[in-house]
Amino acid sequence: MYEGQWPPLVSRAEWLAVQRLLRSPERKTSRSGRAKHLLSMIARCGRCGDTLAVAYRGERSEYLCRTKGCVRIIQRDVDEVAEQVMLAYLARPEVIDTLRAGEQHDDRELSAIRDQLATVRARHDELADAVATGTLSVALAARSEPALLAEIERLEKRENELATPSALRGLIEPGADVARRWASVPMSSRRDIARLLLTPQLIGELRVTPTPLRGRRRVPAEDRILWWRDEQEILPNRSWSAPCPDPT
Ligand SMILES: [Zn+2]
């Protein structure tokens, strides 16, 4: 898919990483090849957690909470904040180091994690089957299930940590001048990058909160964006967490 754009930069390992990303199950629900908007179906509603879709108000495109319409915000404003945060992340020295670190090791650990994950998921399925057929009591199943679910969660988190750097490597080269390269990356790849980075394990899910009631003043997009990490709200830039003074 990216042939012709990257050939001299892409190693076989990177190519394989892109292929893995393209084949991953979550891609089947999106047609990112045609997507025009950076964060549609990626950013989420800060009130109900659903994804945001693009809606037009006249000429202006906005992100809108998909099912309940809890939030509405100018698309360009959110895209700008998200781009700044993602590019700052990709320019951080420790991120660059991680992304450049030995892929061999990552890949071995990754396939081991995936094997373990398959085993634990199968055990969880068996538990459900055993309860359904009456070979195991509900009470006994309830006692063993939390440990299995915790193990699945731990493995999924590790899988995500390991899979992300190798998937990213094929999409954009991190570094101090990543912002310059971003300009030449096609939208479908930008969306793939956003999908990888805006997760609770990395930068955090981008969630947009409803407009606070502050008279007629427009609240800047960065004041309405939360970065959702492991069930907590995190603001990446301390200055953004200062609330606007209430105009009275
Ligand atoms: Zn909502």
Task: Write up what this structure looks like.
Helix 4 (103-132) packs antiparallel against helix 5 (138-169). The chain has a four-stranded mixed sheet. A three-stranded antiparallel sheet has the order 2-3-4. The chain has nine helices and seven strands, in the order H-E-E-E-E-H-H-H-H-H-H-E-H-E-E-H. The chain has a domain at 31-91 and 177-248. It is of the alpha+beta class. The chain is 49% helix and 12% strand. Residues 1-12, 26-33 and 236-248 have low confidence and may be disordered. It has helices spanning 12-23, 75-90, 93-100, 103-132, 138-169, 178-182, 187-197, 221-224, 238-241; strands spanning 44-45, 52-57, 60-65, 72-74, 205-208, 225-229, 232-234. It starts with 11 loop residues before the first helix and ends in a 7-residue tail after the last helix. A hairpin with a 6-residue loop joins strand 3 (60-65) and strand 4 (72-74). The radius of gyration is 21 Å and the shape is globular. The structure holds zinc ion (ZN). Residues 45, 47-48, 50, 65, 68, 70-71 line the site of zinc ion.
Describe the structure concisely.
With 248 residues, the chain is an alpha+beta fold. The chain has helices at residues 12-23, 75-90, 93-100, 103-132, 138-169, 178-182, 187-197, 221-224, 238-241, and strands at residues 44-45, 52-57, 60-65, 72-74, 205-208, 225-229, 232-234. Zinc ion binds at residues 45, 47-48, 50, 65, 68, 70-71.
